[in-house]
Amino acid sequence: RVVRKMAASGAEPQVLVQYLVLRKDLSQAPFSWPAGALVAQACHAATAALHTHRDHPHTTAYLQELGRMRKVVLEAPNETTLKELAETLQQKNIDHMLWLEQPENIATCIALRPYPKEEVGQYLKKFRLFK
To answer: Keywords assigned by UniProt (predicted)?
Structure first.
């Protein structure tokens, strides 16, 4: 969870966060998915992102302290916004997973691999905490 920079830099340890962005409209009509289905989508995306990027040093550090993992779940208003975010992340070379629920092929959630907050926060500022 904490990545220590070179001692010579004098920098504080970086706290690693795994960000998830979940579609808010799936909880509302006409979709009206139950809370459990939404939680499952976030779990699928988070697990897939961790697995896909399991060899990255940030992911390795994040998984070494299972009891101290930090996740932040944000909301996207709809599928269009979620896909636009995925495109932006792709263009900026930010490792992530866009989860597509099957068999419908519906984009439901994006999970980033663990990152220091300072590295990705600027791309997620427009998204609110999921309520």
So the answer is: Hydrolase
- What pLDDT digit, counting tens, does each position of 46-65 carry? 999 999 999 999 999 999 98
Tokens of 23: 């579609």
Domain spans of the chain, in order of start: 16-129
Write out the two tokens for 115.
């990152």
Contact call for residues 62 and 10 (beta carbons, < 8 A): no
> Residue 102: which H helix or E strand, with range?
none
| pLDDT per position as a tens digit, 83-103 | 999 999 999 999 999 999 999
Query: What's the pTM value of the predicted model, to 2 decimals?
Result: 0.88
**From CA 120, how far away is CA 64, in angstroms rounded?**
22
**What top-level class would CATH report for the domain 16-129?**
alpha beta
Q: What span, in angstroms and rounded, lies between the C-alpha atoms of 9 and 93?
A: 25
Q: How far is CA 114 from the centre of its chain?
A: 8
